[in-house]
Structures are given as structure tokens and as C-alpha cells.
């Protein structure tokens, strides 16, 4: 299902109970594919994943883990809320090789790329997390 995973880090997976609690606190509902990813592949190492959208090239370094580590969804959301850079509906999803992030919009379901140098102009990538993972899978074929 996740052809873009090179190696799993099984010791850092997240429980369904933790995910549901996180959703309740945030008032969101993760797509099933993201719940599956966090439960079974949180902190996985990715293959070389590059793709283009709108004539722009992207390289995904990793899917941002929900929990565990210096860069995780919880810490990024806390930083974003304290500085009010990014809409509260945007949930960090993945990071590129330059340290910029892809976000999942919990209101619309769409995935965006946001550069910290141009926060006001997010680049639409696709209509869902499922499509984003499909793009990553295709880039590894």
C-alpha cells in the first residue's frame, strides 16, 4: 500500500486510542489512510520521492510523524498556533528536503505545499491525503 516506504521504525508507532484522543482535542477526523500510516509506519524512512505539480518539482524527505521526535505534528501545530502563521485547519503532513511542509487541510481534505517564505500563497498539490500517497507511490515505480 505504501510503496514509498524504504524502512519502517516499528518502535515509534501510535495507538488508535492516542489518534482518537488527538482528533477529539483538535476537532478533526484523520482520513483512514493517515490513521493506518500513523499506527503502522509512524517515523518510517522513505524511498527517494520526487514529483512535479503545476510545473514545480517537489522532493518529500519524510511523512511527519504524529508523535515522537523533534519534528512531529504536535510540535509543529504548537509552533504554528503560537505564531499564527498558518490556518488552524492545516495539519502538517510531510516535509521536503528544504524543510518546507506539505499540509492536509482538515476542513477541505486537500493537500497543500507551504513555504515559510510565502505562507500567504499555499500551492495546491491534490484533493486528498489518499491522492498524495498515490503520488508518492507512483514516484517510486
Folded structure, characterized:
It is a single chain. The protein has four helices and eight strands; from the N terminus they run βααβββαββββα. The strands form two sheets. Strands 3-4-5-6-7-8 form a six-stranded antiparallel β-sheet. A two-stranded antiparallel sheet has the order 1-2. It is an alpha+beta fold and about 140 residues long.
Oligomer: single chain
Proportion of residues in extended strands: 25-35%
What is the SS-derived class?
Answer: alpha+beta
Major β-sheet profile: 6 strands, antiparallel
Which stretches are low in confidence, meaning pLDDT under 50 for 5 or more residues running? none
Q: Report Rg.
A: 14 Å
Q: Please, what is the average pLDDT?
A: 91
Rough shape? globular
What layout of secondary structure does this protein have?
Elements: E1 5-7, H1 16-26, H2 32-41, E2 45-46, E3 49-53, E4 56-63, H3 73-83, E5 90-96, E6 101-105, E7 111-114, E8 123-126, H4 129-139
Antiparallel strand pairs: 1-2, 3-4, 4-5, 5-6, 6-7, 7-8
Notable characteristics:
single chain; 141 residues; alpha+beta; six-stranded antiparallel sheet; two-stranded antiparallel ribbon; 4 helices; 8 strands; 30% helix; globular
Amino acid at each position: 500500500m505504501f510503496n514509498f516506504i524504504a524502512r519502517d521504525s516499528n518502535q515509534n508507532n501510535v495507538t488508535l486510542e492516542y489518534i482518537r484522543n488527538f482528533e477529539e482535542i483538535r476537532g478533526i477526523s484523520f482520513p483512514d489512510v493517515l490513521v493506518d500510516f500513523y499506527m503502522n509506519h509512524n517515523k518510517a524512512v522513505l524511498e527517494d520521492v520526487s514529483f512535479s505539480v503545476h510545473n514545480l518539482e517537489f522532493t518529500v524527505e519524510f511523512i511527519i510523524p504524529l508523535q515522537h521526535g523533534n519534528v512531529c505534528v504536535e510540535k509543529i501545530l504548537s509552533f504554528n498556533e503560537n505564531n499564527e502563521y498558518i490556518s488552524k485547519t492545516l495539519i502538517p503532513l510531510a516535509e521536503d528536503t528544504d524543510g518546507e511542509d506539505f499540509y492536509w487541510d482538515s476542513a477541505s481534505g486537500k493537500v497543500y505545499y507551504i513555504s515559510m517564505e510565502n505562507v500567504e500563497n499555499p500551492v495546491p498539490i491534490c484533493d486528498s491525503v489518499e491522492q498524495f500517497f498515490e503520488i508518492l507511490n507512483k514516484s517510486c515505480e
